[in-house]
Amino acid sequence: MSFTFHRTYRGPLRAAIFDWAGTTFDFGCLAPAGAFVNVLARHGVMATDAQARSPMGMHKRDHIRAMLQLPELREQWTARHDTPPTEADVETLFQEFIPLQLEVLPQYCNVIPGVVEVVDSLRAQGMGIGATTGYNAEMMQLCMEAALRAGYRPDVSVAVTEVPAGRPAPWMALKAAMHLNVYPPEALVKVGDTPVDVAEGLNAGMWTVAVVESGNEMGLSEADLAALRPATRELCRRRAHEKLAQAGAHYVIDRIGQLPGIVAEINARLAQGEKP
Ligand SMILES: [Mg+2]
To answer: Quick check: 135 and 160 in contact, CB under 8 A?
Structure first.
C-alpha cells in the first residue's frame, strides 16, 4: 500500500498536571532538601544543599539511593561505615526520612504566588487541574490540606506511592489524566521544576513546561531570591533555564504566572497539527 492516514489532535489543551514542591507549593522546594541533609548527617555523611537537590522530584527512596551514588557521599559513607552503602541502608535512611519530612513539612506549606490565579484562568478555559508528586500519600495529604486553605484545589492529586514507579516514569501523570478523563496525551501539559518532572511529562507524551524562580534549580526562598544581587540572580536563572531546556522542556518560564501565555502558544501549535 502506498498511502496511510494519520490522525492529528487539533483541539486545545484540556488539562494541566502540576508538580507540588517548587512548582505550586513550597517556594524554593526547601522542605525536602533540608530533610535529606539531616537524615544523612545522622549517619555521619555531610551532604551539601546542592547534593541534596540534584535528584529532586524522584520517589524519595530513589532520591536517597541517587544521593548515595554521588562519589563524594559514597566515599564519606564508606569511610564512616567501613563498607559502601547497601540497599538495606537506603531503606533504613528512607524510613528515617519519612518522619523527619513530615515534621518539617508544615513550616513550608506556602502556595506559590500566582498559582491560584493561573489555575482559575485555566479552569475558565475548561481545563482540568491535576497534580503529581515525589511525596508519599501522607506527605501529599499535608500539602493538599494547606493548599485548600490557600485556595489551590487540584481536581486530582497522585502521590508516588500510588503507582508502580515514580518519575521519570509517566505513571503519575497518566493516572492523573485518567482521573480527569482527558486524552489524548497531547491535550495535556505537565508543569514542574526539575529535570525528572520534564521527563515524566515527555514519557507520558504530554507538553512540558518548567518553572525556574520558585523551583529546585534556584533552591531559594522568596526572600533569599529577592536578596540576590542582580548579576548573581541572572547567572543562576540562566543556568537553571539551560538545565531544564536540556532536559527537553518545551518551554522554560521564570514564573508560574507566565503559564496562561504558554497555554495559548501550545493551543496555536496544536491547531496547526503539531504534537509535543
Ligand atoms: Mg518539585
So the answer is: yes
Q: What are the φ/ψ torsions at residue 39 (nearest 5 degrees)?
A: -70, -35
Q: Which residues have CB under 8 Å from 236's CB, separation 6+?
A: 218, 228
CB 204 within 8 A of CB 177: yes
Task: Return d(Cα 89, Cα 42) in angstroms, integer.
Answer: 13
Q: Does pLDDT of 1 surpass 90?
A: no
pLDDT of 209-264, one tens digit each?
999 999 999 999 999 999 999 999 999 999 999 999 999 999 999 999 999 999 99
Distance (Å) of CA 72 to CA 45, 56, 79, 138, 205: 10, 18, 11, 32, 36
Confidence of residue 203 (pLDDT cuts 50, 70, 90): very high
Break the chain into its structural domains and give their ranges: 15-30+111-271, 31-107
254 is catalytic: no
60 assigned to active site:
yes
Centre of ligand 1 to C-alpha 8, Å, is 31
Q: Quote the ligand 1 centre to 6 CA distance (angstroms).
A: 36
Task: Exactly one of 60, 62, 193, 197 is catalytic; name it.
Answer: 60
As its CATH architecture, domain 31-107 has Orthogonal Bundle (1.10)
The CATH label, of 3.40.50.1000, 2.30.42.10, 3.20.20.70, 3.60.10.10, for the domain at 15-30+111-271 is 3.40.50.1000
Catalytic residue among 19, 26, 62, 193: 19
* Tens-place pLDDT, residues 16-28: 999 999 999 999 9
Q: What is the pLDDT of residues 168-202, one digit of tens each?
A: 999 999 999 999 999 999 999 999 999 999 999 99
